[in-house]
Amino acid sequence: MITTAQRTPLFEFNQAHGGRMVEFAGWEMPVQYEGIVVEHKATRAAAGLFDVSHMGEATVQGPQAEEFLNSVLTNDVSQMDDGKALYSLMCYLTGGVVDDLLVYRKSKDSYLLCLNASNTEKDMAWLRQEAAAFDVDLEDVSKNYGLLALQGPKSFQILARLAELDLGKLAYYRFVEGKVGGVDCLISRTGYTGEKGVELFVGWDDTERLAEILLREGSPDGLVLAGLGARDSLRLEAGYSLYGHEIDEEISPVQAGLMWTVNLKTERNFIGRQAIEAEQLVGPRRRIVFFRTGGRQIARPGTEVVFEGETVGKVVSGTFSPILNEAIGSALVDAKLARCDALEVARRGKGTPIRRAKPPFLPLNPQG
Amino acid sequence: MSIPSDLKYTKEHEWLKVVADGQALIGITDFAQSSLGDITFVEMPEVGDTFAAGDTFGVVESVKAASDLFMPVEGEVVEVNEALEDAPETLNESPYEAGWILKLKLSDPSSAEELLEAGAYEAFTKE
User: Fold this and answer.
1) Closest alpha carbon within chain A to B35
2) N or C end of chain B, less CB within 10 A?
3) A vs B: CB pairs below 8 A
4) Distance in Å, alpha carbon of B90 to nearest chain A alpha carbon
5) A65-72 and A120-131 helices cross at what angle (nearest 10)?
6) Which of A232, A298, A323, A347 to mutate to test the interface with B (most CBs of B within 10 A)?
7) Domain range B8-107, its CATH number among 3.30.950.10, 3.60.20.10, 2.40.50.100, 3.30.70.2190
8) Highest CATH level, class, for A6-54+144-237
């Protein structure tokens, strides 16, 4: 098989540490090292180190950087100060989602965006098209940065031994530039696991050195390397959306339950606002719901959701929660039935009841 | 990868071990459990169910994938390993011993002879 998949700066490192490599979003990524369940539990109990260097990065700079971002993003960038990170969606005119992303404000005229790997090319084309009317410079800097996520209750004690800065002052959804183990990083107090932790943007060629340092320093605390498999089961336990599952070009923020990322407080005119407001007014025709199965069998994406024999939706995410010892998931269902307690998933011709759950599926405190 | 020499194998990665007159234990191989990763669910047939060779008799699921189980030979289920329902990870930890899935009464005791020997199975896994 001829593969054209891209490799992260940790490709050799991942292979040397037993990473089982799979193609994901055009990248050769480790789905697991020792095993998904072990890595998941270690991240909840101690710490996990994830190679997420496949994520895309872009810089937005210039005198109209803020106005430009506020015209394409659902969240309001003008509320940010320097050193602030903000989660936002980027929508089409229809209200469907182009991508979900993190915005980092370095200064009023300089921002870094962190984009989904699968969407980076599409995002850049979209941003370039929309930027034409603004005095801003856009650059895809994905190949400048590796990205490591250090997540888990022990992540800060590991980081404290390596970082030359006062971590106590680094609040949730803020970032600083500093050294970790002598390596220059952008240290962001964010994550995708529901645990306390950081994401470290690091120079592409420094990524392997930083990973070695973190692994060596963290191993005595129980830190393990964790792959995309654990990343997915951790994010689903936390109830975080994943592009292509809970959100996509046809699933709007109203349907996805992500209106907290859509700032409608000011008169700001951003792409998709009219459609989103209209949908909010009449009510969405379908909604994302999270569910527990009560059993161990995973309801895979695409599985039909059934009510009284009628198909009323489909599963969009499904995994096994190693903490609950139970299969959990999310589904896109007819809005009229979003609060219904008698939904089933169709499996091999028979219905299995599912129970609605309000995420997170377990008590989590990423801000702690 | 462990492939005990006293078992018989299929290209669907099941093993079969003749235990007594016309009866055999059936499970999945070390190669199968390793490929699947953490196994989280096993669906097994009922005692008394009968199957032809090649029939689907159950499912094993991991976080990553679901995989059908195929009956190596024709026969009737006389026992299932109920411990797997609450501890499917046993299939990862001990695929050839504690992780046996069911005991089968073979319709034709000689039918097991037609399955793959360990050497042939090992060669197949390396194709």
Assistant:
1) A20
2) C
3) 42
4) 14
5) 120
6) A298
7) 2.40.50.100
8) alpha beta
